[in-house]
Amino acid sequence: MAKYVAEPFRIKMVEPIRKTTREEREQIIKDANYNMFNIHAEDVYIDLLTDSGTGAMSQEQWGAMMIGDEAYAHSRSYFRFIDSAKDVFGDWAWFQLVHQGRAAEKVLMPLLLDKEQGKDVAISNTFFDTTRGHVMLTGATPIDCVVEEAKDSKLRVPFKGNMDTKRLRELIAEYGDRIGVVVMTITNNSAGGQPVSVANIKETSAICKEHNIPFCIDAARYAENAFFIKRDEAGYQDKTIKEIVREVFSYADYFTMSAKKDAILNMGGLVGVKDPEAPALNGVKANAIVGEGFLTYGGLNGRDIDAFAVGLQEGTDYHYLEYRIGQVEYLAERLDEAGIVYQAPVGGHGLFVDAAAMFPNIPWYEFPGQVLAVELYKEAGIRSCEIGSLLMDHDAEGNPVQSAFEFTRLAIPRRVYTQAHFDVMADALIEIKKRADKYTRGFEIAWEPPVLRHFQVHLKPIE
Ligand code: F0G
Predict the structure, then answer these.
(1) Catalytic pick among 128, 215, 251, 255
(2) How far is CA 100 from each of CA 72, 259, 261, 389, rounded to the nearest angstrom?
(3) Measured from the CB, is residue 185 less than 6 Å from ligand 1?
(4) Distance 463 CA to ligand 1 centre (A)
(5) Which of 152-156, 198-202, 319-323 has the least mean pLDDT?
(6) Which CATH number fits domain 22-51+318-461: 3.30.420.10, 3.40.50.2300, 3.90.1150.10, 3.20.20.10?
(7) Do 22-51+318-461 and 59-314 agree at the fold level?
(8) Ligand 1 centroid vs 35 CA: distance in angstroms?
């Protein structure tokens, strides 16, 4: 029997969600052109589109918002935030508030990458889409360098998010001074929310130092990553989550962070600069001022900065993390009982179902991950998203690109859904699995925009 770690909180405020019939949902998804982003939130029963900005804030966070200081410069909220950030991340020279993760990337990446200066390559364990986008906007080429284990969804080994350091050395030998930055994404979202070990972060940092390459952490899920280190990496069992976070951040020169994940905010982001003499520090400040707002608010309300200060602390609470990761593991165990394949062991922020394994008769270019997302919606009103060949888009010549995986991602919002909701998810997947052999055709594209097609695409079922 799958086990569920009970919530370390109780519910004080509720948000009603609407139940619909299968018949209604079939019409809704058709009207949405089979695109999950087009469905109105009102028509969704369990929303697993993303874990980003969808968490439930605590009474402490809402309370902190009431004392937010809306002064333009050097507000009280700012100083409360800086104290909290130093407590969690250590003594960094500069923390730059910005409005979300991709804003942090927009501020930092053009300072480290510059085609005209010959810095036109960036390497990561795996770039998240927006980070990849900001690398490409500078004219540089992003290269993913994740360990081979990540590519086998059935292989149960810890730290499948790690950088392939042997390959990293080969890439450095090949590209040398052209490499402007190495980015470590923790946890590795695109590889299934897989964690990265301290040993791997330390080794990657040392390689970067040896070759004088700036080392940057993409820190969206820094606390979930620390939880896995405490649980699974030798020598870390007696350390606190904060001690582990501080050690991890001690190896980096910069970080960019979406605060919409582990800091449990609805909106917010951060750039960190370790060294007061860092060449990019003045550029970070200048880019933030022109693009986001004055240094001490960076596009955020004073009240949001206070909620951020509190969220940073709550995100590192061990019992909260144990419950959160436990939820995903509960879902995974129920799927194991039914023989459903997913990226295993499960990562932090969600479960990535292997839709190619679920629907062996649907070819990749008919998007099995999207078929499963649509079926989940029809079955139980669950909204998930495809992470596969639909998301991969096409190459510069317009040819379709096959993704390494055909995943359907069930991303779990923080502190929002209960065990009964997780049973609805498991039951729906198990029902679909029972009839999975009968699915032989997927979708064709009826219309698509020139870039980032998955957000706007119109799909048509192939009869
Ligand atoms: N980095 C990682 C690893 C992310 O997962 C995200 C967002 C970002 C950067 C960008 O942050 O959304 O605040 O601008 N991931 C969301 C997701 C959107 O659904 O995985 P943002």
Answers:
(1) 128
(2) 19, 7, 10, 26
(3) yes
(4) 35
(5) 152-156
(6) 3.90.1150.10
(7) no
(8) 20
Note the pLDDT tens digit of each residue in 31-54: 999 999 999 999 999 999 999 999
The CB-side HSE value for 430 (13 A sphere, CA atoms) comes to 15
- Active-site residue, 294 included: no
How far apart (Å, rounded) are the C-alpha atoms in residues 320 and 143? 34
Q: Which numbered atom of ligand 1 lies nearest the CA of 185?
A: 3
Q: What is the pLDDT of residues 313-329, one digit of tens each?
A: 999 999 999 999 999 99
| CA of 133 relative to ligand 1 center, distance in Å | 12
Distance CA 422, CA 428 (A): 10
DSSP 198-251: HHHHHHHHHHHHHTT--EEEE-TTHHHHHHHHHHHSTT-TTS-HHHHHHHHHHT
- d(CA 376, CA 449) in angstroms, rounded, equals 25
CA-nearest of 366, 337, 363, 388 to 442 is 366
Residue 218 bears catalytic tag: yes
Read off the pTM: 0.96
State how far the alpha carbon of 94 is from the alpha carbons of 151, 174, 234, 284, 309, in Å.
37, 33, 32, 9, 15
Residue whose structure tokens are 């209604």: 24
Per the prediction, the chain carries an average pLDDT of 96
Please check whether residue 288 is in contact with residue 310, taking contact to mean a CB–CB distance below 8 angstroms. no
Q: Residue 147 — pLDDT band, cuts 50, 70, 90?
A: very high
**CA 445: distance to chain centroid?**
26
Neighbours of 278 (CB within 10 A): 17
34 CB-near residues (< 8 Å, 6+ apart) = 370, 374, 443, 458, 459, 460, 461
List the CATH code of the domain at 59-314.
Answer: 3.40.640.10
